[in-house]
Design goal:
By secondary structure, the protein is of the alpha/beta class. The chain has two helices and six strands, in the order βαβββββα. The chain has one domain: 3-Layer(aba) Sandwich (Aminopeptidase), CATH 3.40.630. Helices cover 20% and strands 19% of the residues. The strands form two sheets. The chain has a four-stranded mixed sheet with strand order 1-2-5-3, covered by helices on one side. The protein has a two-stranded parallel ribbon with strand order 4-6. The longest helix has 15 residues.
Length: 96
């Protein structure tokens, strides 16, 4: 599962809205039975939700972005063990 871009209008930032979006999204992923989530985003922001660089599991992004910006979160411990390879995104995601 991939966490899509999260955006909050500047006048509403720093109020926890984006974090609440992320927490609710992760909770929904767990309820739907997903084991892990990837995100391409700010390396200073997403680690506070438990995201780590995907290089830890040998996973690469298909876009050639900086490695520190491509992160993953195991919703279930060990879910990404042996994963490796290049992440694939559905066409709809590429249209964003």
């Amino acid at each position: 599962m991939s966490l899509a871009p999260i955006a909050v209008k500047p006048e509403f930032q720093k109020q926890g809205i984006g974090g609440e979006f992320i927490r609710e999204g992760l909770k929904a992923c767990l309820q739907l039975g997903y084991d892990s989530v990837i995100v391409l985003g700010h390396p200073e922001y997403y680690p506070k939700f438990g995201f780590e660089p995907t290089g830890k599991w040998g996973i690469k992004d298909p876009f050639g972005e900086p490695v520190e910006a491509f992160m993953a979160l195991e919703l279930k411990k060990g879910a990404l063990e042996g994963a490796g390879g290049i992440a694939e995104y559905p066409d709809e995601f590429l249209e964003v």
